[in-house]
Write a structure and sequence with these properties.
With about 350 residues, the protein is an alpha/beta fold. The protein has 11 helices and 14 strands.
Length: about 350
């Protein structure tokens, strides 16, 4: 169920359609949120204050209460803001709602614990205009200032502008879901986001890597644009880092299981490289040098969910897992609970 609270739905729709027909490259911005009313308020204010090169700002709220809606009341007078309150959890599910509700062909996403640079969207305008074969584009994610002795903030700075058209690009192009944009029609033709992947879903993580892989398998161009910046404030202390790593690699196992089970065997060498380079090799090096064990969390998480993903039913065309019935979602979370930090 989706509840919509908008100040002027009809007027907003008419202005968006008119703007898009004139410019041809207007952008819808989507922010999905859960449990961060104060943080998402900061995110939305940074977007609304940025350069006016987007047509609408869609908020998809998965909170069970209306705390986020109450926090956003001061912003709802802005005609560009559209708020949707939805039942169910999972970033993939929420992003699909944003994709469905978007009224522009280009849709940009950032997270509810980020702020954006004023010219954040300028590069996306350029990329999707200059490269018609590109349907997915990632930008840079900078870590906010923090005490690096206490923990870390996930980030990814694109080293250089580059087009990615083959699976080998996945070895170096590793854009993350805090800053990316896509062509709406192309992504919907692929089935959108996999609802079982991503934060809040039962397979936890890696919906960004999954989307990149599915795009490349389908022949869609993927691009990385260096000068599109957002700042990420998602601090994690070192004690919780193991759990975060476990969730990332758990999701990654599911990502690779789907295409292999569907017969896309050209994915295999890239999966083996990823597993060997970032999980198996660190574990072997630590074991041989009698250092603290490294890599075992990644190995166990990846193998556990690869087996689970191999068994799970999926759509062979979209390469998306079939959604779980509602009564199975909570039991799946319990079955695949991440280890305690």
């Amino acid at each position: 169920m989706i509840a919509c609270f908008e100040s002027d739905v009809t007027g907003a729709h008419d202005s968006i359609v008119g703007m898009e027909s004139k410019t041809g490259n207007s952008i819808s911005v989507v922010v999905c949120t859960y449990g961060r009313p104060e943080s998402v308020l900061t995110t939305l204010r940074s977007i609304l204050a940025a350069a006016a090169d987007f047509a609408e700002l869609i908020v998809v709220d998965q909170n069970e209460d209306l705390d986020t809606y109450q926090a956003l009341l001061p912003l709802l007078s802005d005609a560009r803001l559209r708020y949707f309150h939805v039942k169910g959890k999972g970033s993939g599910r929420a992003r699909n709602v944003g994709l469905e509700q978007a009224q522009c062909e280009i849709v940009a996403f950032t997270d509810d614990d980020c702020t954006v640079y004023p010219d954040w969207l300028a590069g996306y305008h350029h990329v999707f205009t200059a490269f018609p074969e590109v349907n997915l584009c990632y930008g840079s994610v900078l870590a906010a200032d923090h005490d690096r002795t206490l923990g870390y903030i996930p980030d990814y700075k694109v080293p250089a502008d580059r087009a990615c058209r083959t699976l080998s690009a996945m070895l170096s192009a590793r854009g993350i879901g805090a800053n990316f944009a896509m062509r709406r029609s192309a992504m919907q033709s692929l089935g959108g986001f996999d609802v079982r992947l991503g934060a809040g879903a039962d397979l936890y993580s890696a919906e960004d890597r999954d989307l990149t892989l599915r795009c490349l398998l389908a022949g869609h161009g993927v691009y990385e644009y260096r000068d599109s910046f957002v700042v990420h404030y998602g601090f994690r202390d070192w004690a919780s880092g193991r759990m975060h790593t476990w969730k990332d690699w758990f999701g990654l196992g599911a990502v690779f299981a789907k295409p292999l089970r569907a017969g896309h065997w050209r994915v295999l060498p890239y999966m083996l490289y990823e597993f060997a380079r970032y999980a198996l090799l660190p574990f072997l090096m630590a074991t041989l040098t009698f250092r603290s064990q490294r890599g075992w969390t990644r190995i166990s998480a990846f193998m556990t969910c690869f087996i689970q993903g191999w068994r799970a039913p999926s759509d062979r065309h979209s390469l998306c897992y079939l959604p779980l019935p509602p009564e199975q979602v909570s039991s799946s979370h319990e079955q695949h609970a991440a280890p305690r930090a």
